[in-house]
Amino acid sequence: MVATLRDVAEHAQVSVRTVSNVVSGYTHVSDKMRRRVLDAIEELDYRPNPVARTLRTGRTGVLALVVPEIDLPYFAELAREVINAAAELGYRVMIDQTGHDHERERELLTGADRTMLFDGVLFSPLVTRAELLEMQASRTMPLVLLGEHDFDGRYDHVAIDNVQAAQDAVAHLIAGGRRRIAAIGAQPDEDYATPQQRTTGYERALRAAGIEPEPDLLRAAAHYRRADGYRATRELLDAPDRPDAIFCYSDLLAMGAMRAVFDAGLRVPEDVAVIGIDDVEEGRYARPSLSTVSLDTPFIAREAVARISARIGEPDAPAVEVRAPHALRVRESTAPRDA
Amino acid sequence: MVATLRDVAEHAQVSVRTVSNVVSGYTHVSDKMRRRVLDAIEELDYRPNPVARTLRTGRTGVLALVVPEIDLPYFAELAREVINAAAELGYRVMIDQTGHDHERERELLTGADRTMLFDGVLFSPLVTRAELLEMQASRTMPLVLLGEHDFDGRYDHVAIDNVQAAQDAVAHLIAGGRRRIAAIGAQPDEDYATPQQRTTGYERALRAAGIEPEPDLLRAAAHYRRADGYRATRELLDAPDRPDAIFCYSDLLAMGAMRAVFDAGLRVPEDVAVIGIDDVEEGRYARPSLSTVSLDTPFIAREAVARISARIGEPDAPAVEVRAPHALRVRESTAPRDA
DNA sequence: TTGTATGCGTTATCAC
DNA sequence: GTGATAACGCATACAA
What we know:
The structure is a homodimer.
Chain A: H1 5-12, H2 16-23, H3 31-44, H4 50-57, E1 62-67, H5 73-88, E2 92-97, H6 102-110, E3 120-123, H7 130-136, E4 143-146, E5 156-159, H8 162-175, E6 181-186, H9 193-208, E7 218-220, H10 226-238, E8 245-248, H11 251-263, E9 273-275, H12 281-285, E10 292-294, H13 297-313, E11 321-323, E12 327-329
Parallel strand pairs in A: 1-2, 1-3, 3-4, 4-5, 5-11, 6-7, 6-8, 8-9
Antiparallel strand pairs in A: 10-12
Helix pairs in contact in A: 1-2, 1-3, 5-13, 6-7, 8-9, 10-11
The structure holds a DNA duplex.
């Protein structure tokens, strides 16, 4: 079978204590001892059992990254960065998909899941009910929120300024000569933070330009997938007075929206301008390339991992809010009206 | 602190053995005992410690999914399906990115990684060196290969027929009236299985149509990202005698290829037809929509998880090869020449 | 600096 | 059917 600490100790004629010291990189070990132990380890092909170590220390070295669906490009790109950032701090990452299932979210947040084996949770919901977070209040599992921004200092979180990001996007459309600007991505349910904030930014930009928001131009999207953007856009184009621009709450929605515009025999950006949020690579290669608001995912990932790591080390420290930068990326899909 | 089995036992006035039986769903427990235990569990909010359980049983309930980069859409979609399929069998999934790093691949394959804590590995490389797999021969970690197909019964694997898939794609181009057909995705290094097989299929289709493969039309791609497809396509278009069709070894390469064609002032499919492999959702919404070979990812994922689960249960059973179905998806990017 | 002994929370082996 | 108890492999308090 596989060698244990004890085997190594016997083989090297030293105590388990010494072997453990060597393995854990403890400094106060004489060179000759270390040599003997290292040789024995080599010879027996010994590897520490991470499970036993965890049982003893109480730390698993695993972080959970909770996302709606890992194949949404934004979350895939986020996951990539999180996994890399976590690796640098010695953590591994377990990905949990909630699939928009609130029950699953609740389990993860409250620790009701009987199989939890991580030191902390990075929770990056597409949309979160405030109520869900209430439940977490009682729990002890370290938690960092990604992408949310409305929880007033009760939780660590790293997020962009959603209101401002949306406002920037819409202001850009207005600057390009658009007046009938639709928005896709509102959520029917009221207590979702992210879409609400984006709607706020959307309306704010409109009003700043003297345009009164029209309820008919604000469309819901069940999820944030291409099909949802496609569907919502068809509805917008079928309506009597069609928009001349569409602001989508995600790049994926925007990809669906663009395709719907083409299928209706119209052009982007000539007839309808389209802009998204996320800046996923897909949009940069699309035709036309997609204007969007870039989220600096590597920054978010690095910061999130740093935060959860700090939280694990010091559970009772005050919550930290990190504001991630965002930046408008102007591309072909929003070329000005009369250029 | 958090309650343990012992606490529950004391509270319920029974032995730990009985509590353990109840928790593990053991049948031979009297109803009154079970009731008492359940009440105590409820009252103390007891949850089994998965780490302790693992130390005892030797099984972690975790599977590793090893991919080059999780934000390559094909792998993201695969991961999604694998996570779901694994959950149905009671497994969780840890994602490891090799980042095309052979050293990292070796660690994962040989178990040299000191922090391994999974019951089995699902290895889905973009490209694999045969030599790497040699190393695994000595190891005991259950392994299932995804997407590879050339290892003659030594390992469990589930894969499509890469040669046939490539051949189908290229035959479709030929049927559409194309003659100068380029291929993007060959690997400079010779012992990569997947690209080699696709090249074989490409050449076979060409010869079947009486076309002699031209070395200049077979382009390498370091990785399988959009930028690689873009770069290779530019080179092809800059050459004196440009191709009238491009077969890409991945959809992502194809997305980059299409963009490069447009940027060169040419049209897809009129001037250059483009086809990929993978059938990721992005291609279905692209303009033009991307013809491709569909890989039935849900099937692959389900089958892979079933295989690794079986392998874990019976380490010495003979290796199983599962052939996953593939299907040509004809879309706009390969509309016939004279249609 | 190194050795000995205990316990982390389970499951499983033995008795009863 | 249930109770006591020995591992699982490691880290560390305490001794030497």
